[in-house]
Specification:
This protein is an alpha/beta fold. The two termini are 31 Å apart. Helix 3 packs antiparallel against helix 4 and helix 4 runs antiparallel to helix 5. The chain is globular and about 65 Å long. The strands form four sheets. Strands 1, 2, 10, 11, 12, 13 and 19 form a seven-stranded mixed β-sheet that branches. The longest helix has 23 residues. The chain is built from 20 helices and 19 strands. The protein has three domains: 203 residues, 3-Layer(bba) Sandwich (FAD/NAD(P)-binding domain), CATH 3.50.50.60; 124 residues, no CATH class; 149 residues, no CATH class. The model has no long low-confidence stretch (mean pLDDT 94).
């Protein structure tokens, strides 16, 4: 069946859902096509044997974006505080606010007493970045405040003063663009200390974003019902406002001249405006080979680039009581079992030629030394686990290429079994004693799982890797409005592949920007004589 829509959105992650919601709100006939059978992309919650687990992002940082988004669309989501714990070996600190910073510093000083002065200097840098953030996220993002933008008092008293401060601070933040591991060598030569601070960051994370994590931890919130509540509410809004969402529909071809797309099942759909909110390499495949020069150049950059780090995750259902879990790790922890640091390991590629057994030994050492993010949904919402029990989501950054190498060697299931066994043992011997006996089940998800389930290149969770030069996306906040442009007439883009570094707030912002541009152009065309 051939149909025509005012706006066709490809990809039902949060960026695509945001774009579709605002297009539907403006009264335009809107359709989302999603290749998988579910919506939400990297934001979702699933249930297994009565335990609820967040399949992607573990909590939300507001960043002046989520609150105005919810208000603009009147989405009924309730949030609770999401306190974060940072721990190394047997020591930890619960972050309650900015006044926890000295205790946070003392955590590192306990393991690196000779680096006390360096740690203090690094903490001073954290405070400096937090002050930048106070300005950058100091008001609700005006992109979502249509009514306020028509109020002269708001413009003069709130927006203009903020924009002046914003322009100054964004320039200061932009100067902290050096990879954080490299930047910290200005303060310390202790690679172990640098590892403890940095090894849960993505490779080559810019200094500003890395040092802003402390402030982001204080801003974390958790939606009652799980993180999947956000895409679920956006889904409901789109349907309630006349939009359509069709899952299991992969777009394989775009006919720019005819304003039509073709799906894998052969159906065609027409559009007036197309918003691509899915994997960017899939976008270029769908466009074909006859491209304008600038678009062809951008395609070439994307094709030789790599996605951001991915994650290895264990979803564990256990007989631990919520009270025991609270005592052990709290609702959301970043935990490092050993203070040795991952820099003590060689790059896995250097030893891959020595055989699979050598590589498996390397993986065990990696999992003993890496930093884990441990999320406990039931400690934010008591309904998310059976009475008296606790589900743990345990994840660590992990190399997609290594996972693919093992899969190609026929060792994928053996790798998953080894990872599961090792992670359970490491936590059993450290932060969660007797976990091996008290785990009722464990489900292992790898970077290949993420790639298969979401279609995201290399199982990436926040777009393009910082190691790409050039990065195939806009990466200056002052130019974020340009991130939605594709160079193709009547085709826009949004989501984590369009701006780097990306995260949930950026995906929402680009979704809103794409919707605003689509609506503006549709209105302009509607008003033509």
């Amino acid at each position: 069946m051939n149909e025509d829509f005012d706006v066709l959105v490809v990809g039902a992650g949060v960026a695509g859902l945001t774009a579709a919601a605002f297009c539907a709100k403006a009264g335009y006939k809107t359709l989302i096509l999603e290749r998988s059978e579910r919506t939400g992309g990297l934001v979702g919650t699933f249930t297994h044997k009565g335990f609820a687990f967040d399949s992607g992002i573990r909590a939300f940082e507001d960043s002046g974006v989520i609150t105005p988004l919810l208000h603009s669309l009147n989405l009924p989501i309730k949030f609770v505080r999401n306190p974060v714990t940072v721990g190394i070996a047997a020591r930890n600190v619960r972050l309650k606010g900015e006044d926890s910073l000295p205790e946070y510093a003392n955590l590192y000083k306990a393991f690196f007493p000779d680096e006390s002065a360096a740690i203090d200097a690094i903490m001073a840098e954290v405070i400096r970045v937090m002050r930048y953030m106070d300005v950058l996220y100091g008001i609700e993002n005006p992109l979502f405040l249509e009514d306020e933008l028509r109020n002269p008092r708001y413009l003069v008293k709130t927006l203009l003063p903020w924009l002046m401060k914003y322009s100054v601070n964004i320039k200061k933040a932009g100067k902290l663009n050096e990879p954080v591991q490299q930047y910290l060598r200005n303060f310390t030569q202790s690679q172990e200390l640098i590892d403890m601070i940095c090894q849960h960051f993505f490779t080559d994370t810019p200094t500003f974003f890395a040092l802003s994590y402390f402030g982001l931890y204080l801003d974390y919130r958790y939606p009652l019902g799980g993180t999947g509540m956000l895409p679920a509410r956006l889904f409901d809004y789109i349907i309630a406002h006349g939009g359509e969402i069709r899952t299991g529909n992969e777009v394989v071809s775009i006919s720019v001249d005819d304003h039509k797309i073709t799906t894998a099942n052969g159906s065609e759909t027409g559009y007036r405006k197309l918003i691509w909110a899915a994997d960017q390499t899939a976008f270029y495949r769908a466009l074909g080979e006859k491209l304008p020069k600038a678009v062809a150049e951008q395609k070439a950059i994307a094709q030789r680039s790599h996605g951001m780090d991915s994650v290895l995750t264990l979803f564990i259902g256990s007989s631990f009581s919520p009270e025991e879990a609270q005592s052990a790790c709290g609702a959301h922890a970043f935990y490092t079992p050993l203070s040795v640091g991952l820099s003590s390991l060689p790059n896995w590629r250097l030893i891959a030629g020595d055989g699979i057994d050598t590589l498996k030994h390397w993986i065990v050492e990696f999992l003993e030394k890496t930093t884990y993010e441990i999320s406990v949904p039931v400690l934010r919402d008591a309904s998310l686990a059976p009475d008296g029990k606790t589900g743990f989501i345990v994840s660590t950054l992990f190399d997609y290429d290594l996972t693919k190498y093992l899969s190609d060697a026929g060792e994928y299931q053996a790798f998953k079994d080894l990872a599961q066994k090792t992670i359970l043992r490491v936590l059993d011997q450290s932060i969660l004693p007797h976990l091996m006996q008290r785990a009722e089940f464990a489900i292992c998800a790898t970077p290949l799982t993420i790639e298969r389930e979401t279609g995201t290149l290399h199982g990436a969770i926040t777009g393009w890797a910082h190691t790409n030069h050039p990065v195939p996306a806009v990466h200056e906040f002052s130019r974020i409005a340009k991130s939605t442009e594709t160079g193709i007439h009547d085709v826009l883009q949004c989501g984590m592949w369009t701006f780097s570094p990306a995260g949930l707030p950026v995906s929402i912002i680009t979704g809103k920007l794409a919707a605003d541009q689509a609506v503006k152009r549709l209105k302009r065309r509607k008003n033509l004589p």
